[in-house]
Amino acid sequence: MRRSKFTESQIVAALQEVEGGVPIAEVIRKHGISRATFFTWKSKYGGATVAELKRLRELEAENVKLKRMYAELALENAAIKDVLSRKL
Length: 88
Description:
The protein has helices at about 10-20, 25-30, 35-45, 50-85. It is an all-alpha fold. It folds into 2 domains: about 1-50; about 55-88.
C-alpha cells in the first residue's frame, strides 16, 4: 500500500483550515492535493484531533498484539488437546 507524503497531523491541520473558514480551493492549492484527496481525507479524518488519531493508532497496535497472542494460545491449546487425545 502506498504511503502518503502527509502525516496525519498535517492532514488534520489542512481540514481544520477549511473549518476555520479558508476556501477549499485555497487549501488544496496550498498543500498540492486534488479535490478528491481532500474529500477522502475529510471522510476519513473529519472531526478528529491529532490526539484522537494517535490514540487510535495505539489501540490498533494493541489489538494486533492481542490477536497474535490469542492465535498463539489457540494453537498451543489445540496441540495440547491433540497430545492428550492420543494418550487416552
